[in-house]
User: Fold this.
Amino acid sequence: CTSCSFVDCSGGEFYGIDVVCSNVQDGSNFNTCQDTQLQATGVFQLYNDNYGVCFTEEDACNRDKEEMPDMYSCDCVNQEDRITLQCQHSCSEVCNQQDPGTSCADESIVQTYASYVKDSSARTVTYSGQRKEVVVLEETDCATNSFGCRRCRAQVDDTVCSSCTMHPCNDGSFKAKVQCENVNPNLKEIDFCQSNAADTGMFEYFVNDYGCVTPAEKACYESRRELLSKDTHLDCSCNPQKDDTYSMSCSTTCGDICHQSICFRESISQEFLQDGTPEPLTRTVQYTHGLRHTLTFTENQENESCELAVDGVQCNECRLESCDSRKVPMIDCTNIDSNAETASCEEGTSTDGFLMRLTMDKFDQCQDKTAKNDKCEAAVSVDMQSISDPSSMNKALVSYSASTVLIDFDESTSCMEGRSDSPGLWYTFLGTGEGVSASVCEADFSAQISVYTSSGSCDSLDCASGTTTGNDCSVEFHGKANQKYMLKVHGRDLQEVGNFNLVLNSFDYTAQRCSLEKEAFESIQGKQYSCECDGNEDGHSLLCENDCVLCNTEESICGKEQMNLLFNKGNVVKHTESFHYLYGSRDNKALIVERDICPEPERDADCQETCFASMDGIPCRECQIISCDGGGGTTGMQISCVNVDESLANYTNTCDLNVAVNNFGESSTATARTTAANAGMAHLFYQDDLSLCVPKNASLLCLHEKSVKMMENDQYECNCEQDPYSSNHESLTCADLGCLQCGRGFCGFPTVEMQFASNGDMINSASGFFMMEGQPSPHTKTMEEVAIEMQSRECLESLNPADVCAALQQEVLEAHSEQTECACHEALDGGYNLDCSMLPSCEYCDESGSICARPVQFGQSINPFGYIRSNGGDTRHAFQYTKGRDELIVVDQIHGGGCTVTINGQSCSSCEQTHCNKDSFFPQDAILAASSSSTTRSSRNVTTFFPDVWEDVLINLSIDCSNVIENATFECGREIGIDGDDMFDGMDEDDIDDYGYGIFTIFQYSHMEFMCIDNETLVPTEGWSNTTMSTDAPYADSETNDNSGATDHSTKTGTSLLLLIVLLSLL
Assistant:
């Protein structure tokens, strides 16, 4: 040492030693002057007081346990009187951090001690995944190693490596250097000091970055490794999510993946749950060349299921099957394309159609499809016809990926607002008559589109469409048939260049075309057109009407105009113009001109345009298409309607109005069209200058609708009148005189009823019923209820009531000529009454013959339409009792619902026609037994008649004759007793015979059965048992309105005239 000397420590109280030995080791000093603790450093620090503690193996083990990284779970264990530290990796999975999907391992550590010093350490690594080895690395310290400090031994499975030495690393630590060629020739030397070294083989755990991974992370990387092993053109990444799940996303690493002429770009996504369970994998394939579809394919390997959508349309079926050690989808997309189906492994490797990417593994070429089309003359040609072909599944889109970077400056002017100095790429195509959609929204710069029409060269370009200076990145326009278009993709200025994806799409332009026409019509001055587009998959139509009424300056002649355009695939194929005169000298005249127009793709073909004109529903003599400019393409119509109205000019030529159908749909023609529209059809035919647009009002609109309705149906009789509830409103009622409808007790015509507000708006429209004859049964039924009931009824034919009455009279007289006299009488309302009298030779009696009566007079009423009234009409029924009683009863029924009853000439208190519940009894007026059906009781040799013809004639009566005979009342086919109950309820036949008979016995039927008998022999009279009174006779109250069989008596002339007079007078 440099020095060693005694020193005075404290003013001579005691001496100490001061040693300086820095020449042996830096900082090694020793001084004993301090009374509490020696001041020693370096090699002398063992003299300090804190080295006076004795530490054991257990203390050393606990020390190292605390110092172990958190990833280990350790315990100190006493084995055979030796303390060992045993540690296990606490993570469920320890994997290569650079690629957790390749290899994972399970590590255990065992350390032994000699007193307070670590004696040896053994690390055992058991691999899983791609590697399967078990590697053990033992390190020995100096404490018990008689062969020298820091020795190691490496072992792979059961084989000890040829060499293992410990050597210092740059950071001062000691690590192993292993030679293991005896296990693997490639493992010549692995230096554990070099982290993340390549080619470390089974020793990568000790060298590379292994760490804890979650089940979701491991599953994600395993799926990634599998995908990358199959497709080298993919780039995949696994990304942690907030809920400890992982998501994988993949995309192609080059421009396009191709096989021959078919190319695509692809993206893949998949989610992994916390426990590592994979969700179904979704693969999105966008064909960029050769095919034009986007596929969305989702597969679930767990249950061998899958789903496929083509351009957003779900296929019928998809499942996975094993084919040569790989899963191949078996797909049925015949709902999209009849040939798109794979049902076997052989078909599953097909190279045809849009299923190619999913069923074959031959896409191995990575190509740059960027076209060098930076000049108009080098434009890339696009076949829009194949996109527009409805039989082709290539209709979806054409996609071109390109870049404007490093392209020369282009001096062409853009079609967007302002001028563009940006370089651009060019494309060209021919229009097909359908719509064209162009989009550059997938771009890394502000890409714009300019569309030009060309007559053939790049020197004659006219702007047709383009994006705006805003944020627009797409444009839609009508691609006229056979028109050449040039499309340029560019930026806003010279500095704006970049990569873009141009998507061209063909679509049905009908809706947009209709909207353009709507805008053009509504912009015409002086017409106030209001237009609506209405369309479905079969086409669109545009209907335009005036919001005002067109009148001459004196407002003495007014009318309303209507335009109707029919579209097909964006082309106008029919143009109809009509004009209805509302009032004035041409009241209710209607002019209609229809023109069938050749669709634009067929203009130059053999398509022949036609037209048709009519006035007041009568076809005009001539309508033909003519040239307005000597064959230059502008056409018009030449029309002659002198066969309808001699006051018209012989020919009307629409060329004078400059109506050029070729220009329909172009916004620039709105001004040109104004001239034609201002004159209109009315000017063409009658030279009426209807240039005044009068605001709509209730009166004008009512007249207009009246004209329209009467044009729709020549049987309509319509009338406009002031609404009784509002002086500013008008009401329109149109009765259909061609549709007679009858219900129980009434007949009339269905009506259409409208109400118009003061501003001309229709505020109500409903169906109604115009009652011409009778009244509904029951009488409390409202007209609304009648209208609803009649909506389900069929129309009847009006018959001649005189003929019907005569037919009934003839049939009765032919069957009962010896017993009956009948006559027909015309009623005041135009109907007829049949009045019959029974001769004295025939009486009606009950079965026992205890009571008899003779019909003195009976009959039936026919309404003005030739149908029998169910409520009796103007008829008289008189009965004379001849046995059992002696009264004479007379019942007079009056058309409209009234009735009177007399007994022996004395008037009864009351008589009313009512409506009875027929379900409570079997309808039978015994005394009027002439019927269309009969039932014979053979045991009694008596024929009982169940009438249909005379149903309800006497049943639906409520009579009170108690002022003549005590308690004499009758209601709904029953005689009523003293207490108001049916006098025969609860009695058997013997009781009824003992009780006797009431005055209305001859009316009621529930307990009595009458028959016509010879008044001498009491035997049924010949002829009456089979008599029918006009089985074919029509009835107004028939539920089916069946008038079959009555047509022989029909005539419309007199009745229709009468009805019209009555109706008009009522209106």
